[in-house]
Amino acid sequence: MMNIEDVFLFSKNDKIVIGCSTGPDSMALLDMLLKIRDKYSLSLIVAHVNHNIRKESVIEEAFLKDYCEEKNLIFESMVIEEYGDDNFHNEARNIRYNFFDMLVKKYEADYLMTAHHGDDLVETVLMRIVRGSNLNGYSGFREVAVMDGYKIVRPLIRFTKEELLEYDKENGVKYFVDSSNSKDKYTRNRYRKYILPFLKEEEANVHLKFLKFSNSLHSAFSFIEKERNKALKRVLDGDKILIDKFLLEDEFIQKEIIYYFLDEFYQDDLILINDRHIDLINNLIRSKKANCYVNLPNEVIASKKYNVLELKRDTFEITTYEIELGDCVLLPNNKVIERVNDSLDNSNNICRLNSSEIALPLIVRSRKFGDRIKVKGLNGSKKVKDIFIDKKIASEKRENWPIVVDSKGEVVWIPGLKKSKFDKKKNDEYDIVLKYD
Fold first, then answer.
1. Which of 127, 157, 254, 395 has the most other CB atoms within 10 Å of its CB?
2. Is 232 exposed, middle or buried (0-12, 13-18, 19+ CB in 10 A)?
3. Residues 347 and 275 reside in one and the same domain
4. What letter would DSSP give residue 355?
5. CB count in 10 Å sphere of residue 9
């Protein structure tokens, strides 16, 4: 019989936020906690994120809400309305953990518990090895991670998926199965379906071997981290690396400095970085050119200027502007946007809007990192950056290209290039007509 008390030391009156998807793992965790709730006087807050990808999500959220009402549990949920990142899984994870973090602070909880199990750890470690990382990345996720004021605990890490399914069966725990978990298009699913079974044939408790491996790497990294932190004091000048000082460090510590440098800049998006990017930066540092740069994911530039290396968004260097759109605006690219009575023109140089559908006043500004537009006739949104690329707009022209947004920041028009879903046809109802000339 699986007993959560065997793997985690509970205290009286613990407050716990539980990340629950309604899958077999998280429902097993929730059931285990309910069994000991009275014994420890636990306060349990169930946190559910509806990823809004599958039609079954609405049913699953409603089920969990009813379940929590029946069990006298606090239920908190959110729906992800729109995704703006190219990496769906990465963005969904960031949104989930931001939501969990908010709830932990709202309820002043001691722990956030998630249902990651031993098989999850094996898959994560293997994926990191293949992708490339540092020791900290290769170790996967921790059983207990110390956060700001609370701990993330993964009490099921010593159990396998099969054991959790057996627990659900024996205890009559109802759960839902995410159909996307069987699709080969997702990297983790391929590891789960084809590699994990082979490893389990070789060693039934391979997940425990991986846990030992993970803990060993965590310990090693803790030591290396101390040495790296000493080196950081020698090589960093604010948010810049002094190259001459950097090159005096041990080669292994140099790579850890670069990972730290990227981690501080990318934060939750560090998953976008792999060994190839580390090598690019290393080569940049050692380049004989005094001024050079390399492009990194998400419009980030690593720039070398003589003895200094720094990271920046490429949009930070543009000439920015933001102007409230009145009757006529003269733009930095020497073009004009003016409000006209009407026009027979239906090109991208004309935009017709209904003021009841947008938030006034309108603003014309330079582009910002992450800008997206809900394109007319397209189900969904598109990056402004990709529109510039599709239209073959030279990079130097993109910097000053006007973007028209409403007061809530919704992109309503890219003059001369693309209309949004807010644009009206000639026979529609509209009361604003803008001309770009």
1. 157
2. middle
3. no
4. G
5. 7
Q: What backbone phi and psi angles, to 5 degrees, belong to 92?
A: -60, -40
Check whether 344 has a pLDDT greater than 80: yes
What is the span of the domain harbouring residue 264? 238-316
Q: What is the residue whose two structure tokens read 């559910």?
A: 48
Helix (H/G/I), strand (E/B), else coil: 109: coil
Cα-to-chain-centroid distance, residue 61: 22
The confidence band for 229, taking pLDDT boundaries of 50, 70 and 90, is: very high
Residues 129 and 10 in one domain: yes
User: Contact 42/178 with Cβ under 8 angstroms?
Assistant: no
Measure the CA–CA gap between 204 and 198, rounded to whole angstroms. 10
Mean pLDDT of the chain: 89
Q: Specify if 220 maps to a domain.
A: no
Look at the alpha carbons of 258, 260, 265, 267 in this order and tell me if their dihedral is positive or negative: positive
Structural domain count, the chain: 3
Asked if residue 209 has pLDDT above 80, the reply is yes
Could you give the CA distance from residue 81 to residue 372 in angstroms, rounded to a whole number?
Answer: 14
pLDDT digits (tens, 9 = 90+) for 68-84: 999 999 999 998 876 66
**CA 206/CA 80 separation, integer angstroms:** 35
In degrees and rounded to multiples of 5, residue 338 shows phi and psi of -130, 150
Q: Which of 161, 166, 167, 155 is nearest to 119 (CA)?
A: 161
